[in-house]
Design a protein that fits this description.
This protein is mainly alpha-helical. The chain has one domain. The longest helix is centred in the N-terminal third of the chain and has 31 residues. The protein is rod-shaped and about 50 Å long.
């Protein structure tokens, strides 16, 4: 059972670790490449959602690993 739990924590931490940079990339793209107002706000909202969900998930699942 410990092996399954450990794999779960590593898997979720890895996915969260991948989500946060994609959110940062999307945030930088929306800042440096202005689009139409509707597209820009939707891209910004998506990037911020990735960061705001991915960061706590990364922290919550990486703490027990350490």
């Amino acid at each position: 059972m410990k092996a399954i739990r450990r794999r779960y924590f590593y898997a979720v931490a890895f996915v969260s670790f991948e989500i946060v940079p994609w959110g940062l990339i999307g945030l930088l793209r929306s800042v440096f490449r202005p689009r139409l107002a509707a597209d820009a706000s939707q891209a910004l909202a998506g990037a911020l959602a990735l960061i705001l969900v991915g960061m706590p998930m990364l922290l919550i699942h990486s703490m027990p690993i350490q």
